[in-house]
Structures are given as C-alpha cells and as structure tokens.
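TICKET: design request
STATUS: open
ATTACHED STRUCTURE:
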C-alpha cells in the first residue's frame, strides 16, 4: 500500500486531523495487506467480504484525502468520519473472524477501538455541523447497505453452527 501524503489537503483544514489520518493509514496499511494475503481470510467468505469492504473504505478514504478537496464545511469532522468509518469496517473484519485464528488480533482490536473512538475538537465549525449531518451521499448509503449485508451474513453463518 502506498503512503499518504499529508501535504495534499487544502489549507483550510487544521494539521491535527490530517496528521491523525496519516498515522491511522500507516497503521492500517500493513494490517490490510496481511489480511488480504491471509489463508484464513480466503477460507471464510464472510471474512473475505469484510476485508474487501475494508479495502474499499480504505481506498475511498485515501482518495478523498488525496483529492485535495474535502467536500465539507467542516474538514475536521469529515476526516473524523473517514477514520471512524475505517474503524467500523475493521470491526466488521474482527467480528467476521471471531472463530478464526488471526495474527495480531489484539493489535487490530486496539486500532479498531482507537479509530472508532476518535474525536477532534472542531468547535469553530459548530455552525456548519448540522448541515453536514443531514448529508448522506450515495456512496455512504451504498457503503452502509454493504455493511448491513455483511453483518447479516455473519449472523446467518453463526446460526448455522
């Protein structure tokens, strides 16, 4: 996986969210590569689908950041959501791998928790927060639906046992 260049964000965003995003990408990249090549993942369809979803979210988040154009009046909030979404996707992988031995599981769990609990101080952006919360793009809707399908498959698989 390629590294993220934090200099590609436009100047209206603060450096803390960009730095945090870069750190999470650096931590997630080797984990994602390892999972994609793992025999355990390839042998469990629900896990494979969850890893594919994580990879899609990873690439989408990097693409948004690399585009130099955060489509939000609150860049910190947008970056926070990108990171939290990656954390949720990683959580789905962990959930799908519940009964499967996986290398570095504790490390992955810690990263997932750290990503999902991330909060930036964007108090100066409070006025625009409500407008941002109402927006749900087609990609976000599709992504949410994909995750719901994966979660349903995981539940069905567990019920089979």
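STATUS: resolved
RESOLUTION: sequence designed for all positions
ATTACHED SEQUENCE:
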């Amino acid at each position: 996986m390629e590294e993220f260049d934090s200099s590609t964000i436009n100047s209206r965003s603060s450096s803390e969210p960009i730095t945090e995003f870069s750190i999470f990408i650096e931590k997630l990249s080797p984990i994602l590569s390892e999972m994609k090549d793992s025999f355990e993942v390839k042998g469990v369809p629900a896990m494979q689908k969850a890893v594919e979803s994580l990879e899609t979210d990873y690439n989408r988040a990097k693409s948004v950041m690399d585009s130099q154009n955060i489509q939000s009046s609150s860049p910190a909030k947008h970056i926070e959501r990108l990171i939290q979404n990656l954390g949720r996707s990683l959580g789905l992988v962990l959930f799908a791998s519940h009964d499967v031995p996986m290398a570095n599981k504790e490390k992955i769990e810690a990263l997932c928790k750290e990503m999902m609990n991330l909060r930036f101080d964007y108090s100066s952006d409070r006025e625009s927060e409500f407008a941002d919360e109402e927006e749900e793009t087609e990609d976000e809707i599709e992504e949410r639906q994909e995750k719901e399908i994966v979660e349903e498959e995981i539940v069905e698989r567990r019920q089979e046992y």
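CLOSING REMARK: Helices lie at 15-37, 39-42, 45-66, 75-96, 105-116, 126-134, 138-160. Residues 13-160 form one domain.
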